């Protein structure tokens, strides 16, 4: 009995010791998991964005005569909207969503430290719903750029933004999925899906990893109510930085282009065509004189690989080609009349949308 009491007493003493060792003198726990360090690194780089748009509409009045007179002129209405953005360099460049600032007459950026400035639009990209802004303020803190490709499903992430105009807020979640596409939100879709809450006003904000590094731009939610339902979508930082670099360097985003339309190949279509291949894309249209036409490709050819990398969907093929440099020669593997073949094409520049 005495021996057992000694064991219990020893366990209690050990537990108490661990409890006190786990706390500093200021009663702050040191062994409790926290994202505070990551937030401290990233939060100063995330800005709140407020836009103003002036629209004109007919004026109304209860007085019939006054109403008839006022209907002859237009009244200006001031519309306000909000969103978020991420500072990405010392020169004041900010990445946000195009839908946040679209048609705005004035864009006000409010920084983490309380300063504010009017922003100018450097450029936009409809194909990804991204926009690049710039403000003129000193001592900015650009975001640390991370690597979204290194993120795994199940990794912790944090979303930082300005939901409903409350001011900067942080929510936590995990990477729920990667490479989401086919949502018909943008031409180029390769979303990171997360259950970190993203709400109205959070668009354009930061998705960061546990080290405070920027891995995505929060862009949209999948919801039937308009509120967060655990399905948030962020644009990978690799796509966002390409848009930023190209807009600053060329004034627009430069993407590779083959000049064709495709649809995905599935088992049903493969059976109709009498082939065993179930992955790839079928060419449905070719622009005359375009790179695909010059390479000898035809409608109903099945593209199965680009530069020896297998193509499983139209969106995947679109992204692969878009990320290649125009003027570059690529190898295209395809099936025609049941026979495998290959050709080479010189990529063109995708026409602006």
UniProtKB/TrEMBL annotation:
Query: Which residues belong to any copy of the PDZ domain?
Result: 247-313
Output one GO BP term.
Answer: protein quality control for misfolded or incompletely synthesized proteins
In Pfam terms, one family for this protein is PDZ_2
Q: What is its EC number?
A: 3.4.21.107
Supply the InterPro entries for this chain: PDZ (IPR001478), PDZ_sf (IPR036034), Peptidase_S1_PA (IPR009003), Peptidase_S1C (IPR001940)
Superkingdom in the source lineage = Bacteria
Q: Which SUPFAM superfamilies match?
A: PDZ domain-like, Trypsin-like serine proteases
Q: What are the protein's UniProt keywords? A: Hydrolase, Protease, Serine protease
Q: Where is coiled-coil annotated?
A: none
Which Gene Ontology MF annotations are present? serine-type endopeptidase activity
Instruction: Quote a single Gene Ontology cellular component term.
Output: periplasmic space
Protein family (similarity comment): Belongs to the peptidase S1C family.
Give the protein's recorded name.
Serine endoprotease DegS
Q: Which organism is it from?
A: BD1-7 clade bacterium
């Amino acid at each position: 009995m005495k021996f057992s009491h000694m064991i219990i007493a020893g366990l209690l003493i050990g537990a108490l010791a661990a409890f006190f060792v786990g706390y500093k003198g200021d009663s702050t726990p040191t062994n409790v998991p926290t994202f505070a360090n990551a937030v401290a690194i990233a939060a100063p780089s995330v800005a709140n964005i407020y836009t103003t748009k002036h629209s004109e509409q007919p004026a109304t009045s209860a007085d019939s005569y006054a109403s008839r007179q006022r209907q002859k002129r237009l009244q200006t209405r001031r519309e306000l909207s909000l969103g978020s953005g991420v500072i990405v360099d010392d020169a004041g460049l900010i990445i946000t969503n195009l839908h946040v600032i679209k048609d705005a007459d004035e864009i006000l950026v409010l920084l983490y430290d309380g300063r504010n400035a009017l922003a100018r639009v450097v450029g936009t990209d409809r194909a990804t719903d991204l926009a690049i802004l710039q403000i003129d303020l000193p001592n900015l803190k650009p975001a640390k750029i991370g690597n979204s490709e290194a993120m795994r499903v199940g990794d912790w992430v944090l979303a930082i933004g300005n939901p409903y105009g409350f001011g900067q807020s942080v929510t936590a979640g995990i990477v729920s999925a990667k490479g989401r596409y086919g949502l018909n939100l943008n031409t180029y879709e390769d979303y990171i899906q997360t259950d970190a809450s993203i709400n109205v006003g959070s668009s354009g904000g930061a998705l960061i990893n546990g080290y405070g590094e920027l891995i995505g731009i929060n862009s949209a939610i999948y919801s039937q109510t308009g509120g967060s339902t655990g399905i948030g979508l962020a644009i990978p930082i690799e796509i966002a930085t390409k848009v930023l670099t190209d807009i600053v360097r060329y004034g627009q985003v430069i993407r590779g282009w083959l000049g064709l339309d495709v649809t995905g190949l599935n088992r049903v279509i493969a059976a109709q065509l009498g082939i065993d291949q179930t992955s790839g894309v079928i060419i449905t249209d070719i622009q005359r004189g375009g790179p695909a036409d010059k390479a000898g490709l035809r409608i109903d050819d099945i593209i199965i690989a680009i530069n020896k990398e297998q193509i499983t969907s139209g969106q995947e093929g679109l992204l692969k080609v878009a990320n290649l440099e125009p003027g570059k020669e690529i190898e295209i593997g395809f099936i025609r009349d049941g026979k495998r073949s290959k050709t080479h094409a010189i990529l063109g520049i995708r026409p602006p949308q």
